[in-house]
Design goal:
alpha+beta, Cathepsin B, Chain A, 9-stranded mixed β-sheet, 4-stranded antiparallel β-sheet, 13 helices, ubl conjugation pathway, Peptidase_C19_UCH
């Protein structure tokens, strides 16, 4: 089970947009490349930020696999026992966003009359400039105590949850028609009894993936493997689910059996005609292959069950308690015998139908309950990430100009082969550049520390000689990190933390990027899944 938390009430609607934009628009084009290389935009000034009450966005869950297992939901790091402010999750989330074009997008949405709100931020950053030296490794940043999150108090939350809530609230309260982080996922469920298929499309802020949970030392998979698992066809978990087509087939069978007994005393000429009419209606619906969810249809074909009188002391006054129990058992058996069994087993599959400009991959890191202390142990299996990722083979629908009814997911018959063939013939790619990595350090999800590894920000207007520079944003300090360490053998390049989310930004079509065998990377990096798994 996930850890329970209590969210405070939302802040003032009138001031939320100004306050969030005040934080997220610190990526400014007013600094030279050298100054910006040292300042690291996205550092948090002393402003108040209010987060809306309610549950965070939750992406679709994956299917069962020996290497994977369902997590309890978005993991929320437990509150601190100390009264000292602990807002590392907030800084991690904001730094992750500041590494993308999200802050610039928010700035373009600001009304002209609100331009004054950016001046305090500019002054705040200007104060730091005289203390910068290009040769210095560390960069000063505002301390935790300088940041006010009045309505959150001392309770700590997840960095991914913060990003989700901020984006949803900004889009909703400001009436934005576009959403830089919204992706769409198609879910296909198929009844294993009759073959009926349902299609549902849902919008999410993050795409939730699962890490492998097999207890094996040194187990690692890459991002593509996690995406393949997310998109594969598998059994749908939970109890049996109603299938409308199975119900219609059951009703059709009952009506057919009734017509074979026309001499039954309860069947009149009119009732036989009604049975035939309903049977013909069901036959036409089954042949048409509709979704069988029309309420008018069910009103026409529903059956009136024979009612049984529930045995009670009133209608069986002479029966003893034991005899009454026997009558009740017979009553339940009669009702159950005439009930139509419509529970079915299902398969399910997911596929991405629309990718956003800024894509957040969120990984479930909860492992098993520890016997000692009753805490949730973190999943220590590793996911290997690369500087760029091609999502072409994981997307269906309009973005690939394919019919989702024919090719829904990779792993379906003809799905992966057809996708690879289309990619090789057209040369199309959906390249995303990794912009930031959100890491949580600590033995379990009860307590710990959030840090962010982020790439140098994008700059389309000016030449940026340090675009490949990576930084470790850790609470009150920011440190240069070699690229080779970021893409080394650990999720947390500096320590033994666990990666919780990867933030990508979509590259323009035809963009020239360095491949994943960059000279700055270590010579031996295990990018592939172990063959012995």
């Amino acid at each position: 089970m996930g850890l329970k938390r209590t969210m405070p009430k939302a802040g003032s609607r009138s001031s939320l947009g100004r306050r969030t934009r005040r934080i997220l628009t610190k990526v400014s084009n007013r600094y030279s490349p050298v100054c910006r290389a040292n300042i690291i935009p996205g550092l948090t000034p002393k402003v108040a930020l209010r987060v809306k009450e309610g549950k965070g966005d939750s992406g679709p869950s994956s299917t069962v696999d020996p290497r994977y297992a369902h997590g309890p939901g978005r993991e929320v790091i437990g509150g601190m026992s100390s009264s000292a402010p602990n807002l590392c999750y907030m800084k991690t989330g904001l730094q992750a966003l500041a590494a993308t074009s999200y802050a610039r997008w928010i700035a373009t949405k600001a009304a002209l009359e609100e331009a004054e709100i950016y001046r305090p931020i500019t002054c705040r950053l200007d104060v730091l400039v005289p203390y910068k030296r290009q040769h210095e490794i560390t960069v000063a940043a505002p301390l935790t105590c300088e940041v006010a999150l009045e309505d959150l108090g001392e309770e700590q939350h997840g960095a991914v949850e913060l990003i989700t809530r901020l984006n949803e609230r900004l889009v909703k309260e400001n009436g934005y028609e576009d959403n830089l982080m919204q992706l769409e996922v198609v879910q296909r469920t198929c009844c294993l009894d009759c073959g009926h298929t349902n299609w549902d499309t849902a919008s999410h802020t993050t795409l939730r993936l699962q890490k492998p949970t097999a207890n094996r030392a040194g187990l690692s998979v890459d991002v593509a493997n996690c995406l393949n698992f997310h998109c594969r066809v598998g059994p749908r978990g939970g109890d049996s689910i109603r299938c409308n087509r199975c119900v219609l087939l059951g009703v059709w069978e009952i009506l057919t059996l009734a017509l074979k007994r026309p001499r039954a005393p309860e069947l009149t000429k009119d009732s036989i005609g009604e049975i035939r009419r309903r049977r013909a209606l069901i036959t036409s619906c089954l042949r048409a292959g509709s979704d069988f969810s029309d309420e008018n249809l069910w009103a026409e074909v529903k059956l009136k069950r024979r009612t049984f009188q529930i045995p009670t002391k009133r209608n069986h006054p002479e029966s003893s308690d034991a005899e009454l129990e026997t009558l009740l058992a017979e009553y339940r058996a009669n009702v159950d015998s005439q009930a139509i069994k419509y529970g079915s087993s299902w398969s399910e599959a997911f596929a991405i139908s629309k990718l956003p400009q800024v894509l957040v991959l969120e990984f479930e890191n909860v492992g098993t309950w520890r016997n000692i202390g009753g805490t949730l142990a973190k999943n220590r299996n590793r996911v290997v990430y690369q500087p760029t990722q091609d999502f072409f083979k994981f997307v269906v629908g309009d973005e690939r100009e394919t019919n989702p009814l024919l090719q829904l997911v990779v792993g379906m018959p003809g799905g992966e082969e057809a996708g690879d063939s289309a990619a090789s013939e057209s040369g199309d790619k959906m390249l995303y550049e990794l912009r930031s990595v959100m890491v949580h350090r600590g033995p379990d999800i009860d307590v710990g520390h959030w840090v962010c590894f982020r790439r140098e920000w994008l700059d389309d207007d000016l030449e940026n000689p340090v675009r490949e520079q990576w930084w470790l944003c850790n609470e009150g300090s920011t440190m240069r990190v070699p690229k080779a360490k970021v893409f080394g053998k650990r999720e947390d390049p500096q320590r033994g933390g666990s990666m919780y989310a990867l933030v990508y930004e979509r590259l323009a079509a035809g963009a020239v990027v360095k491949d994943n065998e960059d000279a700055n990377l270590p010579a031996k990096v295990n990018w592939k899944l172990d063959t012995g798994i």
